[in-house]
Sequence to fold (334 residues):
Amino acid sequence: MDIVGFFGKKLEEKTGIKEIACKGMIRLAFRDAGIDSTTFKLEDYKKVFSDNLKSRFEKTGIDNPTTLANYMISELIKNQGLFTMSA
Amino acid sequence: MELLNDSFVFLISFIRGFIGIILIIRARKTKLTNLYALAITIFCECIGYLFYTSILNNLFIFYTFMSVMWFPLIIFIDKTFYQEKKSPFKFFLLLSIIFAITKIVVVGIYQFGPIQDSNLLFLGRISLSIALGATAVWLNYASYTSYIKIKSDKGVEPWIKTRYLLVIFYTIAQIGIAITWPFFPYDKSINIPYILGALSLVIFIFAQFLAWVMPAGFKKWLNRNYTLGDKEEELSEEEIMKSFKEG
Fold:
């Protein structure tokens, strides 16, 4: 399963920005962190969302980058079962 | 009758051992350590069952394995659904410790003590049933609440949703086993609770097999109406950043 796609969709729902760009943004954050985006690890995702994705949000000047990153982390925690269920 | 019981137990042990091996392979591949915990639970059960046959007949070893198996199972549930969330892990850990000690002590007294009182064995069975039932309820609840969040999400493939449903389903069967187990006959003959328990066990193992082994043909069939969509082109870094800047 495309877990990046799943969270890209969540980001699209929150920001209204096209899904393709949201997915791309998450992939860029993974690239910045030097972590493989096909990882099944919650801690990797959390690190990427809290550091790299937030930093990317800040660079774009989007409103409330911290709130947005926290939203992504809360969605991650809520849906953590997916990592095991899609393995 | 013993031959029938033994054949049944060997068969389910073999299937469960196979599920455990598949989980180990998957855990190595995905680096999901919680799957090791689930595999250890299954191996404990698998080995424990063998001591419930007339060949290896040893209730003390059977109950010891059945006591140890809960610890990796509650770790699995906690690591799968409750990381960085409020979790009843400590409660279930305490429950598992209490009932593990109870089971081992009473069955130890029954097997090695001077008096073979069937009330002791009944107490051991009740302890096993409570631990089994409580953990099944927890796994059922955790899976169900997670499933609710993704059930209408089109991005989640049908086979993954089915895996959630199978876990929900097999934990219900597990509760059925927990309810009937204390009333199994002591002489390994067959009575109504035994039939219902055995039926629940077969359903449990079949659903667990489908959930965790998920044969390729079954997975393909579940995804038969699912389309991933056309391979979409990826945007360049500049385009992505621009999309976000423009909001």
Observations:
- Chain A touches chain B at residues 1-2, 5-6, 9, 15-18, 20-21, 24-25, 27-28, 39-42, 46, 56-57, 59-63, 77-87 (CB under 8 Å).
- Chain A has a mean pLDDT of 94.
- Chain A has one domain: 3-85.
- DSSP finds five helices and no strands in chain A.
